[in-house]
Amino acid sequence: MKQSKLFTKTTKENPKDEVSRNAQLLIRAGFIDKLMAGVYTILPLGLIVMNKIENIIREEMNSVGGQEIFMPTLQPKDNWLKTQRWDSMDDLYKVKDSSGHEMALGPTHEEIVVPLMDRFIKSYKDLPFSVYQFQNKFRMEMRSKSGILRGREFVMKDLYSFHLNEKDLDEYYDLIAETYKKIFKRAGIGDVTYMTYASGGLFSKYSHEFQAVTPAGEDLIYICKNCSLAINREIIADIKACPGCGQNDYREEKSIEVGNIFKLMTRFTEPFNLKAMNEKGEPMEILMGCYGLGLGRLMGTAVEIHHDDKGIIWPESIAPFRVHLISIKQNEEALKIYNKLKNMRVEVLFDDRDDVQAGTKFADADLIGCPIRLVVSEKTLKEDSVEFKKRNESEAKLIKINEVVDILK
Length: 409
Hints:
Blueprint: H1 21-28, E1 32-36, E2 39-42, H2 44-63, E3 67-68, E4 74-76, H3 77-82, E5 93-96, E6 102-105, H4 110-117, E7 129-138, E8 153-163, H5 166-186, E9 193-199, E10 206-213, E11 219-224, E12 230-232, E13 250-265, E14 275-277, E15 283-285, E16 287-294, H6 295-305, E17 307-308, E18 311-312, E19 323-327, H7 332-343, E20 348-351, H8 358-368, E21 372-376, H9 378-382, E22 385-390, E23 397-400, H10 401-407
Parallel strand pairs: 3-7, 9-12, 19-20, 19-21
Antiparallel strand pairs: 1-2, 4-6, 5-6, 7-8, 8-16, 9-10, 10-13, 11-12, 11-13, 13-16, 14-15, 17-18, 21-22, 22-23
Helix pairs in contact: 1-6, 2-5, 2-6
């Protein structure tokens, strides 16, 4: 992409109404735009990142047998009455049409997916089974002060699994836990993300969160120094010895929740009478698990973890572009390099703007945060070279023009 064609522009000053670093940097760099508290427009650069995150998640969900669907955002009140959550869920947005018919804007999709599965799950031969989606969620979040980490409207991947017995549910639950670890590793935050015991709420005694350690975190977790499992502060009093290794030696860290998994058991299948026949033709209650992961939250977390005082430092796997090519004054060689990289399918943002000073171009490159910066100028061309610099390194070096293609293969 040529930067001169990008309709968004960078800004030098932090937005006055944002205190979180992820929102400040993403807005300044032109990845997102704030509409109101907890609601953001995802701009072209941000959508590239979100799509990369989505594709990583989709590949991993498909690898464990998940089948992708897309469920409605508008949900009937009757379904929520059946699960007794219409009046008990504080953050539920309720809407009414001109005829007085009440509906919910979906904060989650158990009330939809369970009656949907009742049409297709009839016997033990249909199980185990799992479906997932990428869908907008709406939650009446009154603490919308953490940028895209805590929103009122956001995109979530939610996976739902269905099982005939607890052993099968346990095995799939553990498989998803390991798959989540792969997702976070691929997205560049795996080294600081810990599987964390948390309250199971109304569903079970415990659930699990995945918490990424950062000083910007709103949560507090206690990480076992021996095996690296963690415990959320809300249940630390209930768990003395580490569930993983039995030790009792923790370190305290601030963190951001980037995913969660629950064993729902029959909490939602029972109200809808979702059952399947076993081998003997007897109706069996179906057990259920759910597994959530917010795309915007993951993007915001990556920014909180990977940045410096100049801007974002994207992990290569989710960066908007692999290369930021800067032309200092218009020159044919920069355009040739740009076309070569495009032909090689190297993702490249080409700063071809002729009305912007070099210092501003460098500052924009640091703010946007692509992994590699290439600079073509009169000075480098005298050496038949380009300047090569990684965003996470302080030193730049000259490489020959004819070596650029090989280095970026």
